[in-house]
Amino acid sequence: EGSLRGSQAAWLPGLRASGREGYEQSDVGLADYLLDEEDGQDWAKRIRLTNLRVGEELTGIVQSIRPFGCFVDVGAEQDGLVHISKMDEGFVEDIDALVQPGQEVRVWVYFVGPDKLLLSMVESKVPGIRPRRERGPRDLSAFQSVAADTWLQGEVKNVVHYGAFVEVEPPGGGEPVRGLVHKVEVQGELDALLIGDTIKVRVIDLDLVSGRLALSCREPGAPRPAQDLAAFRDVQPNEWLLGTVERTTNFGIFVQVKAPASDVSAGGLVHITQIKDEFVDDPAAEVEVGQEVRVRVLRVDMRTKRMALSMKEVEENVDA
Q1: N or C: which end of the chain has fewer CB within 10 A?
Q2: Interior CA angle at 255 toward 183 and 43, to 5°?
Q3: Beta-ladder partners of 159
């Protein structure tokens, strides 16, 4: 229903995604990947539920948070639910303190059926798996000294709409680690990658604290495909532009907008808090895909190539 996807709508009839005040994208990282559009939304290329097995370890991205848990995209044909009781070893009082939309999480398949996928963020809570000692973030220290122009051999473990998870071994051997090749770092078409493929990758970034590893298939210095936002850089926040709704999510609306006095167009996000002054429960209830809307440019980030838009009227400062 509304912006809820597949399994969410099936399990929660009548429940809509709630507006989440204060949600912010990370300047760098996987939260940005969450906002990328699904190329053609080709669900046929996603992992079939029948190919998943209980106990299988997956990497996914938190899509939404509910009072009873969170939904995670693991590249399957529908999102999986991590119930609040399966999010931590102990009692979880505040889900928001544990995960946020856009966060990368490691999960295990708890239950899989014809139209239902349940996940666990705690390996020991999966039936048939013996408890192991608590594991912290993955140790990426062996990759710290790897130069950005050093090629490593990796195996594609999962393909999702925003990229591919690839398992690589550190130079000199060691325990393999999964990293993300974002779709803009794929050489060629993302759809051409298949699970089990052996590909060459480079380490372009890593975070020892979170255990996140960013990889690339592109040659060093090769230009990355990115939208041109230069024409929007000087657009004033009080200037209205016409745009077309491309898609909706539970956190906002993606709009394709044309720059003034130009043929250049680019996509931007109208966050749920910028749709209208009143509280918005479900962005999909406010607009339709293909609908023409008026938007204002709030921010243009030339580094990340992202643009923040608003459909709300300009706030006037009234002196007391």
Answers
A1: C
A2: 45
A3: 164
Least confident residue range of 23-32, 39-48, 272-281: 23-32
Say if residues 16 and 4 touch (Cβ distance below 8 Å): yes
- Asked if residues 217 and 201 have their Cβ atoms less than 8 Å apart, the reply is yes
Q: Supply the pLDDT for residue 155.
A: 92
The answer to whether 85 and 55 have CB atoms below 8 angstroms apart is: no
pLDDT of residue 299: 92
What is the amino acid identity at position 1? E
Place of tokens 């009072």: 67
- Answer whether 90's CB lies under 8 Å from 59's CB: no
**Residue 94: its pLDDT value, please?**
82
At 139, is the pLDDT very low, low, confident or very high (cuts 50, 70, 90)? confident
Overall pTM surpassing 0.70 (yes/no): no
| Sequential DSSP letters for 10-69 | HHSTT--PPP-TT----SSSHHHHHTSPPSTT-GGGSBPGGG--TT-EEEEEEEEEETTE
